[in-house]
Amino acid sequence: MKKAIIFLTLYILLSVPVLGIPLQDTFSSFQRGSQRVSSTDFSQRCMISTIREFIPSMMYQVKQKQTSLVHNPLDNSLFSPQDIELQDDAFHGSESLHFVEWWYFDATFDFGYSIQVNFNVYSVLSQGFASVSINVYQHGEPLVSEREFYEITEFYASTETPDIAVQDQPVMQGYIDNATGHWIYDITLELGNISIDLSYEGLTEGWKGITPMGGWGVILPEAEVKGRLTFNNQDVHHVRGIGYHDHNWDVTVFAGLNYGWFWGNIRTENYTLVWADILTTWYLDEPLLVMNRRYNGYHNIQSEDITVRVDNIRWNHGMLIPNTILLDVHKNELDLHVEMKTSTLQYVSIGGVINYWRYHLDCTGELMINGETEYIDNIHIAEFIRFRFY
Q1: Is the pLDDT of residue 263 over 70?
Q2: Are residues 223 and 321 in the same domain?
Q3: Percent helix, strand and coil across the chain, each rounded to 5?
Q4: Residue 286: CATH number of its domain
Q5: What is the pLDDT of residues 98-109, one digit of tens each?
Q6: What is the CB neighbour count within 10 angstroms for residue 210?
Q7: Of 105-114, 251-260, 272-281, 288-297, which range is least confident?
Q8: Is residue 312 part of a domain?
Q9: By the number of CB atoms within 10 A of the CB, which of 189, 204, 245, 305 ranks highest?
Q10: pTM, whole model, 2 decimals?
Q11: How far is CA 11 from CA 8, 131, 264, 347, 350, in A?
C-alpha cells in the first residue's frame, strides 16, 4: 500500500506540467510485458538516475505536443470506430514513458440501485501499481465507496483475453458464449464492506477507436446485468438491470493537454447511443456519437452533425460545472434531441490535480429514425473530467 501511494504521487508529479502547473521533474516509463504485468524493484539511486535521464526527453515531447496542438488542435482526430475481437479487451500496455489503462463497468438496477466498478493499471518508471474501486448508489446518492491499491505483482491482466485477477483471485472474466454468440462478463469482487457477483450479457455489438485521449473500446454498449450485491457480508440484494462496459488504454500525459471531456450513454427501446465531447480547450470541442441497434451493428455519427450544449452552470468545488447537457443530431433520416438534467452529482479529486464529476442524469427526448420515433425517459450515468484549472 505504501509503495502504491509513492507511485501514485510520482504519477501525479509526472502529469502536472501539461495540466498548467510548472514542474521540471517529469518522468516515467513502462514497457509492454508478457501475460503478467510485472515490475522490478528499483533502488533509490537507480530511480534518481533514471529520472535525470528521462526529464529532458519528456519535457521536449510535451513542448512539441503543445506546439502542434496550438497550430491544429483537431488534426488527425476524426473518430472512426471499428469492429472488435475479444483480445481488444485484454491488457494493451504502452510504449509511452508513462500511461494509465482501465476497465470500466456501470449498471442501473431495480429498486433505485446503481453501481460503477473500475480496474486501473498505472505505470511509473518501468514499475507500476493497480487500483480497484466499487461505487454503489441508491437513487443516485453514494451508498458505498471502496477503493484498494495493489502492488503490480498482486495484479494479473492477460494480454490475450479479458481476464483480470487480484491476489490470485479472478475478479473479471470475459468470454463469448458458444451457443448465443453473446459476449459475457463475470465480475466477482469484494472490497471492504461490499461484495458483488454480477454477470453482464451483451445486447449490442462492441466497437473501438482512437481519440485524442488514447485508445477507447466500447466493449458492451448495452448489456443485461444480473447478480448480487452483498453489504456487510449479510445484507444480500438480488439485482437486475442494464449495464455498460468500456476499456481505455494508452492514456498518457498528453491527454492532459486537452481541457477534459464529457461522456455518457443513452438508451431507447431498441437503440443505445454512446456519446462523448472531447474539449481541446474550453471553447473548442470534438463531439463523438456511435449509435447501436440491438443485435444489429453500429453507426458512427460525424462530428459536424452533432451539437453538444451545456446549460444551468453552477459553482461546484470552486469551478463552474454544467448541470444540464443538451445533445442534438440532425442528419438525413436521423433526428435526435436529448435533454440531460442532473439528478445527482458526485465530485472526486484525483490527487488534487485532476477533477472528476460523476453524474446521474435524468434524460428525456426523442430519437426519430427512418420515420419512426423512439422516446427517451430514464436515468443514466455520465462523467465530466477536467484536467485544467482555467
Answers
A1: yes
A2: no
A3: 15, 55, 25
A4: 2.40.370.10
A5: 889 999 999 999
A6: 16
A7: 251-260
A8: yes
A9: 245
A10: 0.82
A11: 5, 13, 27, 21, 11
